[in-house]
Amino acid sequence: xxxxxxxxxxxxxxxxxxxxxxxxxxxxxxVEAWARERAGVLLRRDGAGNIELRLAGSxxxxxxxxxxxxxxxxxxxxxxxxxxxxxxxxxxxxxxxDYFHDARVRLHPASGPPVGARLVASVASPKALHLAQPDAPxxxxxxxxxxxxxxxxxxIEDGLIHTHAxxxxxxxxxxxxxxDRLRRARAAGAPERxxxxxxxxxxxxxxxxxxxxxxxxxxxxxxxxxxxxxxxxALPESPVGGGPIVRVGDRLSVFSPTLSAAVAQRAEEAFGxxxxxxxxxKASAGAARRWQRKLMAGGACEATVFCDYGxxxxxxxxxxxxxxxxxxxxxxxxxxxxxxxxxxxxxxxxADFDGLVDLLxxxxxxxxxxxxxxxxxxxxxxxKQGVLSEPA
Length: 392
Description:
The chain is an alpha+beta fold. Helix content is 28%, strand content 24%. It folds into 2 domains: 3-73 and 155-375, Aminopeptidase; 76-149, Elongation Factor Tu (Ef-tu), domain 3. The strands form 3 sheets. An 8-stranded mixed β-sheet has the order 1-2-12-3-13-16-14-15, sandwiched between helices. A 6-stranded antiparallel beta barrel has the order 4-5-8-7-6-9. Strands 10-11-17 form a 3-stranded antiparallel β-sheet.
């Protein structure tokens, strides 16, 4: 099998693992097994349970570059198993109330097969509780077990992967794919120029809790440069299939401009041109492979946290369809949907995923300090200052 086929297998496997904020064990165990199978990949957990992966022998190449992704996805956690067989579920994440009415879910006992259930009521509670009626006795189900939306098996069709949880497990798969390519290249004799690491965080969907812990505890050394990876809601100006996105900011902040510029520079080099030609250029002046540079203000991501704690940080993301499993979201938000709100598989473009892996590899091979705009500004001054001596 070629690299792409293997990486798409990781993408499919990871995005179907049940996970929730604070209950990321299935994902972390998958990552631990992946690391054990690879010589030279070192794994450690910080005090909050975040996972760091690094390549042995790269420590002298400080400061490190981190690819970060989170291991959770909006989902339920069992709060109580009631005497009448119903289950009280706490929802952890951001999904509109419309999508919970009469919705199907899947209960995942720590031991034993999954059990289907239907949401039958919402409970007024700070925990966002919902009552579910299982289809059959859920033997072995316990407080703390995960429940997810009931969704079909992942499939790759027409250039898209439709799956349970792209956010953020598709980005996690991309980070692992890039690290593995860099590992194999170095084993084959490629020069080691940078200390590239992966940080996988917990509980992002309820407020970046794992990322905050990593910053407070100093999991990443001072001076680290951070490329936070995300899946962001696709919009008409940032479509699925438009290429991976260099995300310069979110709804809360604008990220490190010099690092964003450095990543964009590497994207231009890797993909053969700028994301968007200027108005003075032909369309043919654009990139040979599609990529995007966008603000993506529809949500917030961990890059804001990392920047606020003093790290140089930016974001790379995949445009995401059915954000947080909310199908027909624009119509539901506008109140123009003609059918009841229903959850559905999230989806991303396989070409966008492949592009994100390639861009991460390019940044892992070389991510110089960006020159910023000063060189261009000085050149413009040198060339054009004479017009100021003309009569106004």
